[in-house]
Specification:
Layout: H1 21-38, E1 42-43, E2 52-53, H2 57-67, H3 69-87, H4 94-116, H5 120-153, H6 158-168, H7 175-205
Antiparallel strand pairs: 1-2
Helix pairs in contact: 1-2, 1-3, 2-3, 2-4, 2-7, 3-4, 4-5, 5-7
Length: 212
């Protein structure tokens, strides 16, 4: 078997899909790490300042790989709920729901693909697929839900948000170009960074998640 098709860890094959007490504890731990990572945000030069990348999807993706997609969904859900409790919301919960959907659109497909064949190649295919889905779903959710909701919540026309995009990226001249030149590359960069981090650390930390 080539290096490319070796498993990320031999112990992964022994992981059971059923979520027991140990798995729930690990889900709580990953959720706590995700909340901490949400505090460290990185602005991007091609998008308005309210679009900032964080690495909170790393624990979510680790949960998907180690314990299955359902565990990843629970990590994402707990992360969103804890953030809601700690910081509140400016969109009546719409933004949090949208972020949950976008996060799951990245991690769940990756977890499903990796679960069928626990190899490095499968992990890469899963993360690439998840990144593409996150771009598509992220563009749809932002264009039809998030951006209109933010504009309404802050009492500004959608053109004002577009103008904020134009200020940092001259290619942004409308809502559609905002989605094309800010949202899409934002999710692409996020998917690549999160995938790279998980690919580099997963084999080293996966023994922690052995469930017997």
């Amino acid at each position: 078997m080539s290096t490319e098709t070796k498993t990320l860890t031999n112990a992964d094959a022994k992981i059971q899909p059923k979520l027991g007490v140990k798995a729930l504890v690990q889900i709580g731990m990953l959720s706590a790490i995700a909340i901490i990572l949400m505090m460290f945000e990185i602005p991007l030069p091609f998008a308005p300042t309210f679009y900032k990348i964080d690495l909170s999807e790393v624990p979510v993706l680790v949960g998907c790989f180690a314990m299955g997609p359902m565990a990843g969904v629970l990590v994402e859900l707990v992360k969103i709920l804890l953030n809601f409790v700690m910081t509140g919301t400016s969109t009546a919960g719409v933004g949090e729901i949208a972020n949950f959907i976008i996060g799951c659109s990245f991690c769940v497909p990756a977890g499903l693909i990796y679960r069928k064949n626990r190899t490095r190649k499968s992990a890469l295919i899963g993360m690439a697929t998840g990144t593409l889905l996150m771009i598509v779903i992220g563009c749809f959710v932002n264009g039809f839900v998030l951006l209109p909701t933010y504009a309404k919540a802050f009492g500004m026309p959608i053109d004002a948000l577009v103008g904020m995009g134009t200020a940092v990226n001259s290619h942004i001249t409308s809502l559609s170009t905002f989605v094309m030149f800010a949202v899409a590359p934002f999710n692409l960069v996020k998917g690549i960074i999160v995938s790279l981090v998980v690919f580099l650390i997963y084999k080293k930390i996966s023994p922690i998640f052995r469930i017997r």
